[in-house]
Design a protein that fits this description.
heterodimer, A: 329 residues, alpha/beta, Rossmann fold, 2 domains, five-stranded mixed β-sheet, 14 strands, B: 380 residues, six-stranded parallel β-sheet, two-stranded antiparallel sheet, 13 helices, 40% helix, 9% strand, disordered C terminus
């Protein structure tokens, strides 16, 4: 184990996979000479050269489509979106081509592409630059969608995503790039896609969260422990396909569920999780599933408003107390 | 300071070798062998007869909606003829004749338009992408294939088809820009058939030609008489040779006309005149090539009957195909079947086994026993 930042863990994953497989190449805006807008591709141009670390014109649809074409001919493109908010320009390529080529070609052409970059709320990046973009992608059959919370997950999941034969949407976070954590240095270390992780065992309530919301939930869990509420923290890690089994297993144990998500709540991850918890474990529930979500509004630019827009620790704690009937106790 | 000219005046050539009156520019006539000429004509005739048969099949409800090619046979075959089997062909949705040339069996094309997934499945060694419906999105794929070919060090060339309407899409411009910057071996073939459903070319672009759009991206662009198979062939051969020699991409604008409907769901009498259609019928690519071959004494007796027999046999095989297996709906979503899809597949299988009962049992929970409502087994 080494301690490194989330950013360094991603960089190591790219480096190891590029060393392991000559078909892997990186493409996107500013990924080469500039080493990435967020420096995730640092040092890659120097080690692998311009054929495998390709600076592109500013054309998200174009370079995503090119990645899809290259993947169909057997390469393993890793396409960087400078921010996932810009991936909207490539939505047709992702949804109509990457996700459907395998289906529509009767299995002749799979598209082993990884589209990665940061998304979600950050620090005063405003409405067009702070969206939790996973909601746009996990609806689509044929795509896998990953949101890695820790440096270890960032490395292990990115390596799995690059080796995966399907198109994978891999959304990081600006706010997590400097976060440090333990990361295995073993180049064979991977974390399989589609497996959730129980980050902390608890007995009273299951809190499901990922990315920045998981870190917030950990702090809340620490505080509530002092009140005698034992919180189990579950991180889905892969949003599609989702590890329903681990989540339901936790619900059967705690009988209470709070889902925390940074994005606007309407038809969000919390909606989906509360639906399948109801379908699979209705009679295990001792309280309705609670969702703590971002406000259903665009992200404000002002710092104070931005803080209000995303789930605060107070809101998360209040929801947990509500499902535990612990208000005022 | 005076204004200066930064670039010499760019130009776009127009190429025509055999015009609609049968006049031949012998100096430009490509050197094609009698066997090549005969196979080209046969392919054009097969494309035409098959297309006409498909329209009838659609009208009879035997296949679904499709986009006929009538009038565009020379545009497709003159270009695709220049490819090797190891090169890549990327179609839009109106390239039936080019697909047949590339080895797609006729019944497979019928299967495609009847909804069978096998119809969109190229043979394992076939270097063709499947039909794609969103307009213009296949152009970046073509650039990606070309980049990958170069990356792997093979000398394959990629030919991608699209219509005049697609040149308004961002993906057209992005693909040409990338192809120019990266200097990859792509031949862009725009089949300018004058109409994007009901929108005529003059409402699609203010450019005098589509070919000139190449110049902005630093590539050569050429306009050809798309109903003159010899001109299309000559321009495409030059472009393919340039691409293979590492001299980069080319845009070919093949000026042709869609003699039929946009798709079988369209009625062109609502937006264009019969006079216009009749004028283009005088420029029919088959008529002119047939007259050219007749002078060379290369027309084969009984060719139409043989082509029709081949089509009839394909229709027979197509109609003898069993309907798709319902359980295949879950195939090829992912390379491996995730648990939620397997559960849905099992549910459908059980429902089918039980005779398709209208109110199927709810699926057995894939997650172990869930207590029935009111039978709470776990209580804290």
């Amino acid at each position: 184990m080494a301690v490194m930042t989330y950013r360094e863990a991603l960089n190591l994953a790219l480096r190891e996979e590029m060393r392991r497989d000559p078909r892997v190449f990186v493409m996107g805006e500013e990924v080469g000479l500039y080493e990435g807008a967020y420096k995730v591709t640092q040092g890659l141009l120097k080690e692998f050269g311009p054929r495998r670390v390709v600076d592109t014109p500013i054309a998200e649809s174009g370079f995503t489509g090119i990645g899809i074409g290259a993947a169909m001919l057997g390469l393993r493109p890793v396409v960087e979106m400078m921010t996932f908010n810009f991936a909207l320009l490539a939505l047709d390529q992702i949804v109509n081509s990457a996700a459907k080529m395998y289906y529509m070609s009767g299995g002749q052409f799979n598209v082993p592409i990884v589209i990665r970059g940061p998304g979600g709320p950050a620090a005063q990046l405003a409405a067009q630059h702070s969206q939790s973009m996973e909601t746009y992608f996990y609806h689509v059959p044929g795509l896998k969608v990953v949101r890695p919370t820790t440096p270890m997950d960032a490395k292990g999941l990115l390596k799995s995503a690059i080796r995966d034969p399907n198109p994978v949407i891999f959304i990081e976070a600006e706010t997590l790039y400097p976060v440090k954590g333990e990361v295995p240095e073993d180049p064979d270390f991977v974390i399989p896609l589609g497996r959730a992780v129980v980050r902390r065992e608890g007995t009273d309530v299951t809190v499901i969260a990922y990315m920045g919301m998981m870190y917030r939930a950990i702090e809340v869990a620490d505080e509530l422990a002092k009140e005698g509420i034992s919180v189990e923290l579950v991180d889905p890690r892969t949003l599609r396909p989702m590890d329903v089994e681990t989540i339901i297993g936790s619900v059967r144990k705690t009988h209470r569920v709070v889902v925390v998500e940074a994005g606007a709540g309407f038809a969000g991850m919390g909606s989906e999780i509360s639906a399948f918890v109801t379908e699979h474990a209705f009679d295990d529930l001792d309280a309705p599933v609670e969702r703590v979500t971002g406000a259903n509004a665009p992200m404000p630019y002002a710092r104070n408003l931005e803080k209000l827009k995303t789930p605060t620790k107070d809101k998360i704690a209040a929801a947990i107390r509500r499902v535990c009937n612990a208000n005022g106790s | 300071m005076p204004r200066t000219i930064l670039e010499p005046r760019s130009h776009v050539e127009y190429l025509s070798i055999l015009d609609s009156d049968g006049n031949l520019d012998a100096a430009l006539e490509p050197r094609l062998s009698p066997a090549e000429l005969k196979s080209l004509y046969r392919a054009m005739l097969l494309g035409r007869r098959f297309d006409e048969r498909m329209v009838r099949l659609q009208r009879q409800g035997r296949i679904g909606t499709f986009a006929p090619i009538k009038g565009q046979e020379a545009s497709q075959l003159g270009s695709v003829f220049t490819l090797r089997a190891t090169d890549w062909m990327v179609p839009s949705f109106r390239e039936t004749a080019a697909m047949i040339w590339r080895g797609w069996p006729l019944e497979k094309i019928l299967l495609f338009f009847a909804g069978y997934v096998e119809g969109g499945q190229p043979a394992p060694d076939q270097h063709d992408l499947p039909i794609t419906i969103p307009v213009g999105t296949q152009l970046p794929h073509a650039v990606g294939l070309a980049y990958a070919a170069q990356y792997k060090g093979d000398d394959a060339v990629v030919m991608v088809y699209f219509g005049d309407g697609a040149t308004s899409e961002g993906d057209f411009h992005e693909a040409l820009n990338f192809a120019g910057v990266w200097h990859v071996p792509v031949v862009f073939v725009c089949q300018n058939n004058q109409w994007a459903i009901s929108v005529p070319l003059k409402k699609q672009t203010h450019s005098k030609t589509i070919a000139q759009k190449a110049l902005a991206y630093g590539l050569p662009g050429i306009q050809v008489d798309g109903n003159d198979v010899l001109a299309v062939y000559a321009a495409a051969r030059e472009a393919v040779e340039r691409a293979r020699a590492g001299e980069g991409p080319t845009l070919i604008e093949s000026v042709t006309y869609r003699l039929g409907v946009h798709t079988t769901a369209d009625d062109p009498t609502k937006y264009r005149t019969q006079e216009e259609v009749t004028a283009w019928e005088q420029k029919d690519p088959l008529t002119r090539f047939r007259a050219y071959l007749e002078k060379k004494d290369l027309l084969e007796d009984g060719l139409e009957r043989r082509v029709d027999d081949e089509i009839a046999e394909a229709v027979r095989r197509f109609e003898a195909t069993a309907p798709p297996d319902p359980l295949t709906v879950f195939d090829h979503v992912y390379a491996e079947m995730p648990p939620h899809l397997r559960a849905q597949r099992d549910e459908l299988a059980r429902w089918l086994r039980e005779g398709g009962a209208p109110a199927p049992e709810p699926p057995a929970a894939p997650l172990g026993a869930t207590p029935m409502r009111g039978q709470r087994l776990t209580r804290r």
